[in-house]
């Protein structure tokens, strides 16, 4: 028996209904904010991802040489393809350009709870508008999506990468060393970060101060520990989010998102119900377009881990609307099958979800099957009733049954 590849999943019909329902809610909220959907290829030139994340990303993705000798990779995330699309075809669009996307991504990593080699990501980008108002709008969309899908407990943590960049630079770290240090600070690997800062020539006092700042978490009042543009920027973002009605926000200067293309505000969203692996969304302001051959353009965006978000919802007791079929058409005898096809066609043409018996069950087994697919009503086509221009309709919930003129069937739905 051939098994599915490790780190991938098959989804049953009920699972797909749950996923499509959640996906629909996310799309609805993005549209409410004026974001419009785009789609990009599942595979891209490998260079797109090495330019964005460095050559070491090759070890973490599905990269290969195709039959034409081209270096190709299955996309590990959706921001880089979206920005490549912008540089290729959308750079003349009116600003800000607001887009969202949903799709499969692939990473070669060890599968674990809520983490797969094939996974799904929902994300959004606002391109061509810099400032606290744009950052607040994007964070508000991410938070509104969580609210709209029904996640009860989620936390928003906001930082500013400029704070640590400035501290590292003024303490003597070179431009080459700063991204390597930030990567370790982002992962809270303070011992390794300290070693890298010491190797970069920072004093023990500077190292201690920088680590202390990364552990600064709390309300807007903790911004007293920092000065300059970052403080003003974060204060304004907090103010706008408060206007939007979000108060589950805290400052966390340890949110670094240690990638070199982030330029200012960074944020993460957590679902505490997931325990240690609680992050469900991350993003910030960045500039990638110049890496891909375009003009420098500031953007703010985020990515939501769809699978992990669904897992958090399920742990909170999330339930999707139950699958139902409106009508189930039953021929009492073989001579009535052709009439059942016609009745089913009329119901479907009227946009009424309809199934019918295709394998010749007995009447009792048909009722049992109709119950198993949550059919609301059974349309029973018998010879005697049909000869009088009628059918019987049974309410599958109450068990009540009545005779209805064939011309009046639609009125029953």
UniProtKB/TrEMBL annotation:
<dbReference type="Pfam" id="PF03129">
    <property type="entry name" value="HGTP_anticodon"/>
</dbReference>
<dbReference type="GO" id="GO:0005524">
    <property type="term" value="F:ATP binding"/>
</dbReference>
<dbReference type="InterPro" id="IPR041715">
    <property type="entry name" value="HisRS-like_core"/>
</dbReference>
<protein>
    <recommendedName>
        <fullName>Histidine--tRNA ligase</fullName>
        <ecNumber>6.1.1.21</ecNumber>
    </recommendedName>
</protein>
<feature type="binding site">
    <location>
        <position position="125"/>
    </location>
    <ligand>
        <name>L-histidine</name>
    </ligand>
</feature>
<feature type="binding site">
    <location>
        <position position="121"/>
    </location>
    <ligand>
        <name>L-histidine</name>
    </ligand>
</feature>
<keyword id="KW-0030">Aminoacyl-tRNA synthetase</keyword>
<keyword id="KW-0436">Ligase</keyword>
<keyword id="KW-0547">Nucleotide-binding</keyword>
<keyword id="KW-0067">ATP-binding</keyword>
<dbReference type="Pfam" id="PF13393">
    <property type="entry name" value="tRNA-synt_His"/>
</dbReference>
<dbReference type="InterPro" id="IPR015807">
    <property type="entry name" value="His-tRNA-ligase"/>
</dbReference>
<feature type="domain" description="Aminoacyl-transfer RNA synthetases class-II family profile">
    <location>
        <begin position="20"/>
        <end position="321"/>
    </location>
</feature>
<dbReference type="InterPro" id="IPR033656">
    <property type="entry name" value="HisRS_anticodon"/>
</dbReference>
<feature type="binding site">
    <location>
        <position position="257"/>
    </location>
    <ligand>
        <name>L-histidine</name>
    </ligand>
</feature>
<dbReference type="InterPro" id="IPR004516">
    <property type="entry name" value="HisRS/HisZ"/>
</dbReference>
<dbReference type="InterPro" id="IPR036621">
    <property type="entry name" value="Anticodon-bd_dom_sf"/>
</dbReference>
<dbReference type="InterPro" id="IPR004154">
    <property type="entry name" value="Anticodon-bd"/>
</dbReference>
<feature type="binding site">
    <location>
        <begin position="77"/>
        <end position="79"/>
    </location>
    <ligand>
        <name>L-histidine</name>
    </ligand>
</feature>
<feature type="binding site">
    <location>
        <position position="107"/>
    </location>
    <ligand>
        <name>L-histidine</name>
    </ligand>
</feature>
<dbReference type="GO" id="GO:0004821">
    <property type="term" value="F:histidine-tRNA ligase activity"/>
</dbReference>
<dbReference type="InterPro" id="IPR004517">
    <property type="entry name" value="HisZ"/>
</dbReference>
<dbReference type="InterPro" id="IPR006195">
    <property type="entry name" value="aa-tRNA-synth_II"/>
</dbReference>
<dbReference type="InterPro" id="IPR045864">
    <property type="entry name" value="aa-tRNA-synth_II/BPL/LPL"/>
</dbReference>
<dbReference type="GO" id="GO:0005737">
    <property type="term" value="C:cytoplasm"/>
</dbReference>
<comment type="similarity">
    <text>Belongs to the class-II aminoacyl-tRNA synthetase family.</text>
</comment>
<keyword id="KW-0648">Protein biosynthesis</keyword>
<feature type="binding site">
    <location>
        <begin position="261"/>
        <end position="262"/>
    </location>
    <ligand>
        <name>L-histidine</name>
    </ligand>
</feature>
<dbReference type="GO" id="GO:0000105">
    <property type="term" value="P:L-histidine biosynthetic process"/>
</dbReference>
<dbReference type="GO" id="GO:0006427">
    <property type="term" value="P:histidyl-tRNA aminoacylation"/>
</dbReference>
<keyword id="KW-0963">Cytoplasm</keyword>
């Amino acid at each position: 028996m051939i098994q599915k590849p490790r780190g991938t999943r098959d989804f049953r019909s009920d699972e797909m209904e749950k996923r499509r329902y959640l996906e629909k809610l996310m799309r609805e909220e993005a549209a409410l904010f004026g974001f419009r959907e785009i789609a990009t290829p599942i595979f891209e030139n490998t260079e797109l991802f090495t330019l964005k994340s460095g050559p070491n990303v090759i070890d973490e993705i599905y990269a290969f040489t195709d039959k034409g000798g081209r270096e190709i990779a299955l996309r590990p995330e959706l921001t880089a393809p979206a920005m490549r699309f912008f540089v290729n075809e959308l750079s003349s669009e009116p600003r800000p350009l607001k887009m969202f996307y949903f799709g499969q991504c692939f990473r070669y990593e060890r599968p674990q709870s809520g983490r797969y080699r094939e996974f799904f990501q929902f994300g959004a980008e606002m391109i061509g508008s810099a400032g606290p108002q744009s950052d607040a709008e994007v964070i508000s969309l991410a938070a509104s999506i969580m609210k709209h899908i029904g996640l009860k407990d989620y936390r928003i943590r906001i930082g500013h990468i400029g704070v640590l960049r400035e501290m590292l630079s003024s303490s003597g770290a070179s431009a080459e060393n700063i991204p390597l240090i930030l990567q370790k600070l982002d992962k809270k690997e303070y011992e390794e970060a300290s070693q890298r800062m010491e190797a970069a020539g920072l004093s023990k006092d500077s190292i201690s101060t920088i680590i202390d700042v990364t552990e600064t978490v709390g309300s807007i009042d903790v911004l007293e520990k920092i000065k300059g543009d970052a403080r003003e920027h974060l204060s304004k973002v907090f103010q706008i989010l408060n206007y939007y009605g979000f108060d589950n926000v805290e400052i966390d200067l340890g949110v670094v998102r240690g990638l070199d293309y982030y330029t200012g505000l960074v944020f993460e969203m957590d679902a505490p119900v997931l325990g240690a692996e609680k992050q469900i969304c991350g993003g910030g302001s960045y500039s990638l377009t110049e890496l891909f051959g375009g003009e420098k353009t500031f953007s703010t965006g985020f990515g939501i881990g769809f699978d992990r978000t669904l897992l958090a919802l399920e742990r909170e007791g999330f339930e999707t609307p139950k699958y139902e079929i409106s009508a189930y058409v039953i021929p009492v005898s073989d001579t009535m099958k052709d009439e059942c096809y016609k009745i089913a066609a009329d119901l479907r043409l009227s946009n009424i979800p309809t199934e019918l018996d295709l394998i010749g069950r007995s009447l009792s087994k048909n009722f049992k099957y109709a119950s198993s697919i949550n059919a609301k009503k059974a349309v029973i086509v018998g010879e005697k009733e049909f000869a009088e221009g009628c059918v019987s309709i049974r309410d599958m919930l109450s068990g009540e049954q009545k005779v209805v003129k064939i011309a009046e069937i639609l009125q029953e739905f």
